[in-house]
Amino acid sequence: MFFSFLCAALLACGPPPTATPGTGVPKPAASPPVPAARFGSVDPCKVYGSIYLETDPRRRSGCFGIVYVEPDQAFADLLVFKEDNKLFADKAGLWAAAPNREFADYVLFVTPTRGLADFTIHYTPARSFAGCKTQ
Predict the structure, then answer these.
(1) Comparison of pLDDT for 41 and 97, the residue scoring more
(2) Could you tell me if 109 and 54 are in contact, meaning their C-beta atoms sit under 8 angstroms apart?
């Protein structure tokens, strides 16, 4: 029992520090990389295809990004045209509505607060206007 406690304590401490080459001074162990999506750097220009828009705040953590639907076209990061067929949603701004989360290429949470969004969208009636405005 004491041996299993000792092994668990060593695992909690992490790997031993490694020495810097040439100096002999130990350096701290590197931490694992953090995904970029956690810091709000979702690129709206790469979001296309079948999209499921989630509105339940309890399921927000399972979403790819947070989006705000902008009422004015001038302030939106991405102009979106709703495609009927998923095969035609093949570039930025062309979205096809997915029937549920499992069939979607991207799941986005729709927030009512603009300040919490990773990017903003505006729905356009013309397919030729759809696309990213940051390019």
Answers:
(1) 97
(2) yes
Single out the residue of 86, 36, 33, 37 nearest to residue 66, CA to CA: 37
Q: Which long-range contacts (CB under 8 A, 24 or more apart) does 68-73 make?
A: 68/110, 68/111, 68/112, 68/113, 68/114, 68/116, 68/117, 68/119, 68/120, 68/121, 69/110, 69/120, 69/121, 69/122, 69/123, 70/114, 70/120, 70/121, 70/122, 71/122, 72/122, 73/122, 73/124
CA distances from 108 to 17, 67, 88, 120 (A): 40, 6, 20, 11
d(CA 18, CA 26): 5
Could you read off the pLDDT of 44-86 as tens digits, one per residue? 999 999 999 999 999 999 999 999 999 999 999 999 999 999 9
How far is Cα 90 from Cα 96, in angstroms, rounded to an integer? 10
